[in-house]
């Protein structure tokens, strides 16, 4: 079962939403279908955030003790080795989901447990508040798969991670525990276990719902504009960003992963 | 008594200035008059910083154990509910004061005790060195008042706070103690109490005054240009940034504060 | 003996390079000749990084327990007091070396012990991974010499240090130990002593060499573009950035250093 589900709850007359990533047996790795669902869910939430009695807050979490372990690599051999389909995947499916999250005018809270890798770091980077448990783990060891993070995705995470942490994750496949991610400023708050994380999520949702939704909307619109200042540059980068589709390292990295053997680059 | 005072002192033949924010009974909350005085004081200081025997250093502090608790909300009902007067307040009065601070070619040191909220964070973000005591507290819970921080002010603080801390302060009304603000990189140094803070201020002033004022001036001019790279974007944002003046949430937030009751958004 | 040496090693069929800064008796301070050598070494390494069997990783270190203590000030009186030769030094010699480092498509690891000051911070800021020992020390007390860091160099280090740390180093001549530099996010990892640093360097090199070099190359090209987004602004700044060549503070700062007396600004 691979799906992105949406639950809208009402507390004291105000609504908030809970989005759950679920991919059984794969630590909620994002399949192509899940990226498409993520976009649909957040387009719907944004309509609600602009409604007369607006949605006030969104929580995004993973099912069964993990946030998201990355992309679903078992699908990769089917579309990654041709430039056009690779571009479609990154620019439409993945960026479709991430950009819909970024476009949401209600504050988005990430509740992070367990694995938060690759696509998980990307999804968390689209959130406004990042709350996590001590057992959560972070990284983007994409170099092992023989290809780079796509430009829009890498610009997004580098902006939130900062230059030193982003370079460690991308260039030496650095893995970081929750304490380090708090210390480096990626996490907003850290909790000993799932129970105290849940308490903080509830309190944060309640606190956000007491604040002005119009003020939140205007703040998010402002900050979104600042992040998108470099869109022209990213458009230029993306023109040739997927030409590696049929390259030997890309094929070797993904094939080796599927074959459960070390890649030879 | 609400005022911004200026004291120029001479040590070993070199001059430095001490600017004090004072608003009795309101933890030095900035009144409109104080913003105008802040601008006048820093325009004067910049003249001194460019003089033949230049002013070398500026310290800004609050009176009576607090830095600045925000804006003087008691004035808000008088001008905030009309777009033109609201724009004038943010673009001319507040930004007039903050931009005069940013334009100062002498290094500016913030001495922060007690409350540093809203306008206090904005003023501290215009400083080059931020020294504080353990008891200082930080936040910008402006969502409680039903309106957002103005674009130029929010861009300023987000640049210094970084994206994660800025979103927490603006979107969940997050409050932070001095230890967290040191750990997140906002504070330059932290002190146990007012006495050791005062010692560090004196030593820092003396150290800055031994350095080349021309080098400081060129450094500040360079760094100012980098911060202002996004001015065109901010101009565009500000064109419609104050249309919320007469909105229900804005009226409710400020009216509730004045009535000493929780706002209902 | 002042020189930049290059050693290329092969491990398990993949090559990495070790670049060593060496200036005996001066903690490896960069002479003009060393900047030129640094450029030549990195132009050569970039050719290797683009070759069919590419170089995978570069380590840069200092000789004899120090990284780099700054520039070789003993040379300064010979060329710094005339705008044209000063511009040539910063824009061609220094930036020639630093920009060649930034242009390297293989991941670059800094191994930092002892003094890392001024030019040392600049060189370390061109690296992707910064590993250091507890005894390393950091700063850029250039204001003592009566001149500012050149615009391209200052923009580089400010981007990596962040605004608060950069302002402390440049405007109050702040010095920082290794623990503070880890806490502020400049260092990737910190080690108790040279032996454990060496172990980490070896492990990091081995880890980088197992990753896809094409992925690393594309990541570095992306991140380089983001850093260079402000080139037009820097070009404009550099047009007048060296007019201070013959200024009294510049002459006094350098002359005082050479005379081993405090500068009087």
In words, what does this structure look like?
3 copies of one chain form a homotrimer. In chain A, helix 1 packs parallel to helix 2 and helix 4 (151-161) crosses helix 5 (163-171). The longest helix of chain A has 20 residues, at 83-102. The model of chain A has no long low-confidence stretch (mean pLDDT 92). Helix content of chain A is 46%, strand content 18%. The first copy, chain A, starts with a strand and ends in a 7-residue tail after the last helix. Chain A has a single domain, classed as 2-enoyl-CoA Hydratase, Chain A, domain 1, CATH 3.90.226. The first copy, chain A, is an alpha/beta fold and 265 residues long. Chain A binds chain B through residues 107, 128-130, 159-160, 162, 183, 185-188, 204, 207-208, 210-216, 218-220, 222-223, 225-226, 229, and chain B through 141-149, 151, 154-155, 158, 162-168, 170-174, 183-185, 230, 233, 237, 241, 244, 247, 249-250, 253, 262-263, 265.
- Give the total of beta strands of chain A: 9
CATH topology of chain A: 2-enoyl-CoA Hydratase, Chain A, domain 1
Shape annotation of chain A? globular
Overall structural class of chain A, as computed from helix and strand content, comes to alpha/beta
CATH superfamily of chain A: 2-enoyl-CoA Hydratase, Chain A, domain 1
Mean pLDDT of chain A: 92
CATH architecture of chain A: Alpha-Beta Complex
Uncertain segments of chain A are none
Write the layout of secondary structure elements.
Three copies of one chain form a homotrimer.
Chain A (H helix, E strand, L loop, with lengths): L1 E10 L2 E10 L8 H18 L7 E6 L20 H20 L5 E5 L2 E3 L1 H7 L3 E5 L3 E3 L11 H11 L1 H9 L3 E3 H6 L5 E3 L2 H17 L2 H15 L3 H9 L8 H11 L7
Parallel strand pairs in A: 2-3, 3-4, 4-6, 5-7, 6-9
Antiparallel strand pairs in A: 1-2, 7-8
Helix pairs in contact in A: 1-2, 4-5
């Amino acid at each position: 079962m691979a799906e992105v589900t949406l639950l809208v709850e009402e507390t004291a007359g105000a609504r908030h939403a809970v989005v759950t990533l679920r991919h059984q047996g794969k630590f909620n790795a994002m399949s192509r279908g899940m990226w498409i669902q993520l976009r649909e869910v957040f387009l719907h939430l944004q309509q609600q955030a602009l409604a007369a009695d607006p949605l006030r807050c969104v929580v995004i979490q993973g099912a069964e003790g993990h946030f998201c372990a990355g992309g679903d690599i078992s699908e990769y051999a089917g579309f990654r080795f041709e430039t056009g389909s690779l571009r479609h995947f990154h620019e439409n499916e993945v960026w479709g989901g991430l950009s819909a999250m970024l476009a949401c005018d209600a504050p988005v809270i990430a509740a992070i447990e367990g694995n938060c890798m690759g696509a998980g770091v990307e999804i968390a980077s689209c959130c406004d508040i990042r709350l996590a448990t001590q057992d959560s783990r972070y990284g983007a060891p994409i170099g092992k798969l023989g290809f780079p993070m796509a430009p829009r995705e890498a610009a997004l995470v580098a902006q939130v991670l900062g230059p030193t942490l982003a370079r460690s994750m991308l260039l030496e496949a650095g893995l970081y525990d929750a304490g380090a991610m708090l210390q480096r400023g990626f996490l907003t708050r850290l909790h000993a276990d799932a129970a105290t994380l849940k308490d903080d999520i509830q309190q944060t949702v309640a606190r956000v719902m007491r604040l002005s939704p119009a003020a939140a909307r205007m703040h998010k619109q402002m900050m979104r504009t600042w992040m998108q200042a470099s869109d022209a540059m990213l458009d230029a980068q993306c023109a040739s960003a997927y030409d590696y589709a049929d390259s030997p390292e890309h094929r070797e990295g993904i094939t080796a992963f599927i074959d459960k053997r070390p890649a030879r680059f």
